[in-house]
Amino acid sequence: MHRGLATFTLDTGHCPPWLFDRMVRLGREMTRVLVEEYGPDEFVKRIADPVWFQSFGTVLAFDWNASGLTTILTAALKEAMRGQERQLGIFIVGGKGKTSRKTPDQIFEWGSRMQLAESYVNNLQYNSRMAAKVDSSLVQDGYQLYHHSFFFTVNGSWTVVQQGMNKNNQTARRYHWFSESANDLIEEPHEGIASESFGKRVLDMTSGMSAKNREISTELVSQSYDTLMKDIRLLRRYETPVSRMVSVARGGEQITLLELDRKDFKRHSVEGECFTKSKYLERILQKVCFEKPASYANLLATPGVGPKTIRALSLVAEVIYGASPSYEDPARYSFAHGGKDAVPYPVDRKVYDQTIGMLTNAIKRTQIAQGEKKKAMERLNGSNI
Q1: pTM (2 decimals)?
Q2: Which residues form the domain of 235?
Q3: 274 versus 114: which is more confidently predicted?
Q4: Higher-confidence residue: 360 or 110?
Q5: Same domain assignment for residues 357 and 254
Q6: C-beta separation of 138 from 186 below 8 A
Q7: Residues 14 and 76 occupy one common structural domain
Q8: Are 171 and 44 in the same domain?
Q9: What is the pLDDT of residues 169-200, one digit of tens each?
Q10: DSSP string spanning 182-199?
């Protein structure tokens, strides 16, 4: 598996009913076969694999590089499993827009129906909320989440598939999580995903390179609010490009806050920020300084803490205390398993063959018309995976 994000062109319009109905019918059959063959936990794990997910959507008749594949595929699978959740052992909650905000309630409803332990249900709800918070606040890549689907089994496996949109460049980006690889919900929690688009300057607080910055951010809110605000106000004086030396007067002494080489980058995220002018931010900082969260995860989980709070603390930790976070976009790879020219990395033939083999076998075993099977095989063989 490879870590990263997936980026697609942003679709408009709606999926025609005839196509959605066919996706539901084929999706139901393929899910049944895959669960019989591999079990519900393996199915949920495969959903977390971006290449497999992309291929599955293509087989069910959606364009391989369309943002609508994410929302329509998850909606089709949710409809396909309706009434068969107990039999299949797989539960899908959440969805697009307002439906995404119902995810915790839907998890609770299924927990009650299946008589799942309260602690297990609470943990699922927590993982769902944290996945959304991490991708909206810790990965500041310019994409606003609008879709969140949560897949889980009674055995403890869960997967998050969520997507954000960037209205400026009309693209969408999908984020995959899987329970086995997200033991730490804060540091590099994403399952391997691919991308064709990269941001030049993305604040990635999930990176291992941001560990010291996260540590100091947590320490900052453990002190008094007045002490923290003194550091926040210092950032307002940071108005010159970071390619030059920046000094301010502090306690009657001229000190250098940050000096960066022009060859690294010409501008910095702190430029143009006026944190002290935000009354809401000040209230949130006052709240966290009062509550003093014991960990960075607790800080992020605090109601009201969002991208600007995380960014303000990160910049204080970097500019004043020298703990630089990662500004490298966590997106790594293209849609394909790999390129014939080894760009962005060599083709993993084993993974490639496993993906095609699993889906081919499932198509052959479905109880649908031969004509539909043939079309599904053609879509799989012609997909850009």
Answers
A1: 0.82
A2: 208-319
A3: 114
A4: 110
A5: no
A6: yes
A7: yes
A8: yes
A9: 778 888 999 999 888 999 999 986 556 566 77
A10: -SSSSSS-BPP---S---
